[in-house]
UniProtKB/TrEMBL annotation:
The keyword Metal-binding does not apply. Keywords: Disulfide bond, Signal. One of its GO terms (cellular component) is cell surface. The keyword Disulfide bond applies. It comes from Pteruthius melanotis. One of its GO terms (molecular function) is signaling receptor binding. The gene is Vwde_5. Pfam families: Ig_VWDE (PF25776). Residues 236-297 form the VWFD domain. It comes from the Eukaryota. InterPro entries: Dev_Signal_Modulators, Ig_VWDE, VWF_type-D. This is VWDE protein.
């Protein structure tokens, strides 16, 4: 009997006649390849459950299914299951072999991010696992994605700075040949906002939405979000108060009774400095100055 033949089915995206297809390829065993293959295509309908979308019997070592927006849509995770048998003896068949699940649609890589309030930029790749098709359009072909951020757990009624910012509000996925499971890709950087607030670790998400696509396939599709966790970092503080007493970032204390405009602090790593202006407020009885103005760049 035919048992495990190591057919190793693999799904890859392909553009056929301007339409998006998935191709299931499998390796015929040697030295005696079976004459027929039974290929079952299925999609993940709910966690742990699949539903059949297409099946065929073919002598070819491959099978196609179209991402048509009806039986198979963007956002689906697809599998192909292959069984081999010899013509004339269909009851003698190999054990069915499953491909890995293929996600058809837009992916963020990495699928989640953990970043800190340190000003560093983190690269987020947006890629399409299916070809970009522009039916009836011979010139420049692309899908534009509108990117947005949302702070999870923050009330929309309470305004405040966002927890993360993006380097771009839109990215273009340009049509081109597929390489592996990537058919088009673009990058954007994500940075955590330094908000000078001790608000603990917070969650945000980045969303993408196709902008006015011509292809019907993309119109009803909303890609998965990517979750970004912002790790809170302790904030340093310095002070100048009353007549004026100074406390530095590292806790050193001194007094400055002089009148004039002074540089309170300056960053050595970025364009940031604070000036203070002090006026006489002690009169004839004591030599004292008080803060009367501040300017920050």
């Amino acid at each position: 009997k035919l048992t495990s033949l190591a057919l190793q089915p693999v799904i890859a995206p392909e553009l056929l006649h301007g339409r998006v297809h998935l191709k299931c390829s499998y390796s015929p065993p040697f030295p005696e390849p079976p004459a027929q293959y039974r290929v079952l295509w299925s999609r993940l309908s709910s966690p742990g459950k699949r539903e059949q979308i297409h099946h065929e019997t073919t002598p070819q070592p491959f099978s196609y299914v179209e991402v048509d927006g009806a039986n198979l849509c963007l956002g689906d995770t697809v599998f192909c299951t292959v069984t081999a048998f010899r013509r004339g003896t269909p009851e003698q068949q190999s054990l069915p072999e499953d491909s890995k699940g293929f996600y058809a649609g837009i992916k963020f890589l990495p699928e989640s991010l953990e970043i800190a309030e340190d000003g560093k930029e983190h690269v987020l790749t947006v890629l399409s696992t299916v070809p970009i098709a522009c039916p009836g359009q011979d010139d420049f072909c692309k899908i534009t994605l509108q990117l947005s951020t949302e702070d999870l757990g923050k009330s929309s009624q309470v305004p405040g700075p966002p927890d993360i910012v993006l380097s771009a509000c839109q990215v273009d996925l340009l049509a081109g040949p597929c390489s592996g499971s990537s058919c088009a890709a673009a990058t954007v950087t994500v940075t955590a906002v330094t908000d000078f607030v001790r608000d603990g670790n917070r969650g945000s998400r980045v969303s993408a939405e196709p902008v006015a696509p011509r292809d019907l396939l993309w119109r009803a599709y909303t890609p998965r979000d990517v979750k970004v966790t912002v790790r809170d970092l302790p904030t340093g503080n310095c002070y100048s108060f009353t007549d004026p007493h100074i406390i530095t970032f590292d806790g050193w204390r001194y007094d400055n009774y002089k009148i004039g405009t002074f540089l309170l602090c300056r960053s050595e790593s970025r364009a940031f400095e604070v000036h203070v202006r002090q006026w006489d407020c002690g009169g004839h009885r004591s030599a004292a100055a008080c803060n009367c103005g501040v300017a920050a760049q």
